[in-house]
Amino acid sequence: MVFSQNFPKISNAIGLKFNPDKESNFFRSLVTDAMKYREQQNIIRPDMIHLLMEAKKGKLNHAKTEKDTAGFATVNESVEWKKSDRTWSENEIVAQCFLFLLAGFDTVSTSLSFTAYEICANSEVQEKLHEEIKTVNEDLQGDRINYETLNKMKYLDMVISESLRKYPPAVVAERECNKDITLDLFEGLPYEFKKKHGLWIPIYSLHRDPKYFPNPEKFDPERFSDENKSSINPNAYIPFGVGPRNCVGSRFALMELKTLIYYLVLNFSLEVTEQTQIPLQLGKTFGTLTKVGSFIWEFFVFSEGPEMERYESYPKPCFHR
After folding, report:
1. Which of 16, 22, 153, 267 could connect to 11 by a Cys-Cys bridge, CB 3.0–4.6 Å?
2. CB atoms within 10 A of CB 135
3. pTM
4. What distance in Å separates the CA atoms of residue 219 and residue 223, rounded to the nearest whole number?
5. Where does heme bind (predicted)?
């Protein structure tokens, strides 16, 4: 994977691929056959496949809302990709389906683990978050949490946004120049980017740069409060990428994360143990951010009475990456 990203022409010349042909052909036929069957049978379902079919025809309309309320970390689509007449190729559609399958499991589970760790290690954050969640749960009067209510929970969004800043799902993003361009970089010195040049955007480094985020090693959800988030450089906070090649599932991923954290903090108190790694040691990996060793903490369930009863202790890893 690393070799293919650094040397795409050589990889294509020697036939180096991310997946073997058998697996790639199976997944491609899985998507294309489903789309063909729906077209032949005139089947319409409110799901991702239908949206991709509309995109292939150039009929996908971008939701026209005055303000995106899904969360601070959501991606703002470029003007080009908001155009309803833009058609998607079969390769783009299959790639998006593969992205949902691959990124929908790995990155969400990783982000959940890192977020739960920071909630566990910062008791004041956990207490404030629990109060917000408990208030919302009481207002729901027994109903399940829904998308609209999740998006109104400001402190939950602040916690998730700060977790994605400190632990972005992808360490770097890669792009390819589609035309020659010269930019003034490094104290006004011009730098020329050539067409077909590969670029790496260091997301992790940007998120931990004190120039953009003071005291970057501190987990501080208040960075994303209504009073402070306007001072954040939007191009320095890109947990889901930026531009037309951003993560298409950013809102879906945020919904998953918020729902899981909502029910976790509602029902349990997370406590550190002697085996909990503080500070966290990150693994030297490429691609998805990981840690050295395992996540270890204790769960306590909130009981009916004034005291919390011990639910279960995990002397072994309860979250393992």
Report:
1. 16
2. 11
3. 0.77
4. 9
5. 247
Two tokens, residue 125: 């954050």
Assign residue 235 a region: left if phi > 0, alpha if psi is -120 to 50, beta otherwise?
alpha
The alpha carbon of residue 83 and the mean position of all alpha carbons in its chain are separated, in whole angstroms, by 24
C-alpha angle 164/166/170, rounded to 5°? Answer: 60
Binding-site members for heme are 247
What tokens appear for 166 in the block? Answer: 């400190």
Q: Which residue has the tokens 């030297």?
A: 284
Coil, helix or strand for 164? helix
Residue 183: how many CB atoms within 10 A of its CB? 10
Q: What is the distance between the alpha carbons of residues 253 and 240, in angstroms, rounded to a whole number?
A: 10
Q: Which whole-number Å values give the CA distances from 119 to 33, 159, 210, 261, 264, in the listed order?
A: 44, 8, 22, 10, 11
Query: Once rounded to an integer, what is the mean pLDDT over residues 141-169?
Result: 93
- Summarised one tens digit per residue, pLDDT across range 254-292 is 999 999 999 999 998 888 887 777 777 776 765 566 665
Which residues belong to the annotated binding site?
Answer: 247
Residue 321 has pLDDT above 60, yes or no: no
- Spatial separation of the C-alpha atoms in residues 204 and 270, rounded to whole Å: 26
- The span from the CA of 279 to the CA of 259, in Å, is 27
110-167+208-320 is a CATH 3.40.50.10420 domain: no
